[in-house]
Design a protein that fits this description.
Shape of chain A: rod-shaped
Largest sheet of chain A: none
CATH topology of chain B: Rossmann fold
CATH architecture of chain B: 3-Layer(aba) Sandwich
Organism (chain A): Ceratotherium simum simum (Southern white rhinoceros)
Protein name (chain A): RILP-like protein 2
Number of helices of chain A: 7
Oligomer: heterodimer
Subcellular location (chain A): Cell projection, Cilium; Cytoplasm, Cytoskeleton, Microtubule organizing center, Centrosome; Cytoplasm, Cytosol
Structural class of chain B: alpha/beta
Radius of gyration of chain A: 50 Å
Structural class of chain A: mainly alpha
Radius of gyration of chain B: 19 Å
Number of domains of chain B: 1
InterPro entries (chain A): DZIP_RILPL, RH1, RH2, RILP_dimer
Shape of chain B: globular
CATH superfamily of chain B: P-loop containing nucleotide triphosphate hydrolases
Pfam families (chain A): RH1, RILP
Chain lengths: ~210, ~270
């Protein structure tokens, strides 16, 4: 007696469709697990009609009360069952979603996990992604600072020329002695420039030693 | 002629000439109350007894939270400009400001450091060898004041204990009204005393106190440099047993005392 319900369960969907088309009598051919309140009302209608046909025998009336009572019980059970089924279905769907979410999360997180907690993922298509190393930034800054200090020296020198503190050199037709003077002054200015730069950065060079 | 001039460059602008010692901002949070240069310093400067000093330069490091206005403060002083648009400093930047103090050319090398945490590892490499540490905070943001403790600790860690003058500077003074400003200043003065720092309120936007503040920084750093130099030379002379010792006025213990800026703290 255990096999038939199982078989019915397997074919449940087909049967359901057929039942819908078969009218009130179709409800009686349905699997008890597929029965709805509507089906119970259909069955009540069919049975009521047949009882009516039996006439007004008092025994029929007595049986009718019992049948009504049984149908009411069936209605309650069917309603209860469908509610439970609905709850179970919702729970199943939620669990499915949860599992799917966890599976997706696990597959997305798995490369990050393998990178370790202090690692970062870089989007290679982002034009503003980090590219340069700390050392490169250090080098650029150091170069910028060096150039800036040289600029300051040159600006000072230019200002000295403008304010007439340093006499401008003569034109190209100068004598050899003047050339010599110019040469030495050039040399000394080079030396001074280095000295000033070195002084500006004495703290840095001192740091390196 | 050239060689004697070039180390000092062209004459400094008139408002960088300091003849009398610049005053403190608040007497209850200042590094020293004196209103004149140290006797030895004035004497040395008068007699141009600076032979070996040459071009004098002090390193100043400015630290503090991002957006408190470190760059604005420096730019107001060195370039006399104020830019309303915020542009975060990348790593470090610097300016050189030339002074003439007591007749002697003197320069401040002002290092402007980034306030952003990510640049700390770069900027902190520039803390070393600072004669002056300026810790800046935003007068309208008490959190930035609290953070100055950490900024100072980081900067001090890179320097010899007691070798730096410390200044605590509240910025954006223009944004605060009378009483609110007084309250913020009172809190800052308390912290300044704890840090053994001199306190200043400034506004880079209006320029209020900016020149006075840096003049004070320059004068204190200059005086300390000269005293240290005189001390070095006198001890060198004593070592060689040079009879010329009398030329240096004042007694050595006094000089040694003034070598340590924290000992000069009046509060």
């Amino acid at each position: 007696m255990e096999e038939p319900p199982l078989r019915e369960e397997e074919e449940e969907e087909e049967e359901e469709e057929e039942g819908d088309e078969a009218g009130p009598e179709g409800a009686l051919g349905k699997s008890p697990f597929q029965l709805t309140a509507e089906d119970v009302y259909d069955i009540s209608y069919v049975m009521g009609r047949e009882l009516m046909a039996l006439g007004s025998d008092p025994r029929v009336t007595q049986l009718q009360f019992k049948i009504v009572r049984v149908l009411e019980m069936l209605e309650t059970l069917v309603n209860e069952g469908s509610l439970t089924a609905e709850e179970l279905r919702m729970e199943r769907d939620n669990l499915r979603k949860e599992v799917e979410g966890l599976r997706r999360g696990a597959s997305a997180a798995s490369p990050e996990v393998s990178l370790g907690p202090d690692k970062m993922v870089v989007d290679l298509t982002d034009p503003n992604r980090p590219r340069f190393t700390l050392q490169e930034l250090r080098d650029v800054l150091q170069e910028r600072n060096k150039l800036k200090s040289q600029l300051l020296v040159v600006q000072e020198e230019l200002q000295s020329y403008k304010s007439g503190l340093i006499p401008p050199r003569e034109g190209p037709g100068r004598r050899e002695k003047d050339v010599l003077v110019a040469r030495t002054s050039n040399a000394s200015s080079d030396k001074e420039e280095k000295t000033i730069i070195r002084k500006l950065f004495s703290f840095r060079s001192g740091k390196q030693t | 002629m050239r060689s004697s001039l070039m180390p000092f460059g062209p004459p400094v602008s008139r408002d960088r000439v300091i003849t009398s010692f610049p005053k403190w901002y608040m007497p209850d949070a200042c590094l020293q109350l004196k209103e004149h240069f140290h006797g030895q310093v004035s004497a040395a400067c008068q007699h141009r007894n600076m032979g070996t000093i040459g071009l004098k330069l002090s390193k100043v490091v400015v630290v503090g939270d991002l957006y408190v206005g470190k760059t604005s403060l420096i730019h107001r002083f060195c370039k006399n400009v104020f830019d309303r648009d915020y542009k975060a400093t990348i790593g470090v930047d610097f300016e050189i400001e030339r002074f003439e103090i007591a007749g002697i050319p003197y320069s401040l090398q002002i290092w402007d450091t980034a306030g952003q945490e990510k640049f700390k590892c770069i900027a902190s490499a520039y803390y070393r060898g600072a004669q002056v540490i300026i810790t800046a905070f935003d007068l309208t943001d008490v959190q930035t004041l609290e953070h100055t403790r950490q900024w100072l600790a980081d900067a001090l860690r890179e320097n010899e204990p007691g070798s730096c003058f410390v200044f605590l500077v509240g910025t954006k003074k223009d944004l605060l009204s009378g009483t609110a400003c007084e309250q913020a200043e009172a809190e800052a003065v308390r912290l300044a005393n704890e840090m053994q720092a001199e306190y200043w309120s400034v506004s880079a936007k209006t320029g209020e106190n900016v020149k006075a503040f840096f003049s004070r920084v320059a004068a204190l750093a200059f005086e300390q440099s000269v005293l240290q130099d005189l001390e070095r030379r006198s001890s060198a002379r004593r070592q060689v047993g040079d009879g010329d010792l009398i030329r240096v006025e004042g007694s050595p213990p006094e000089t040694q005392e003034s070598k340590r800026p924290s000992a000069l703290g009046c509060c």
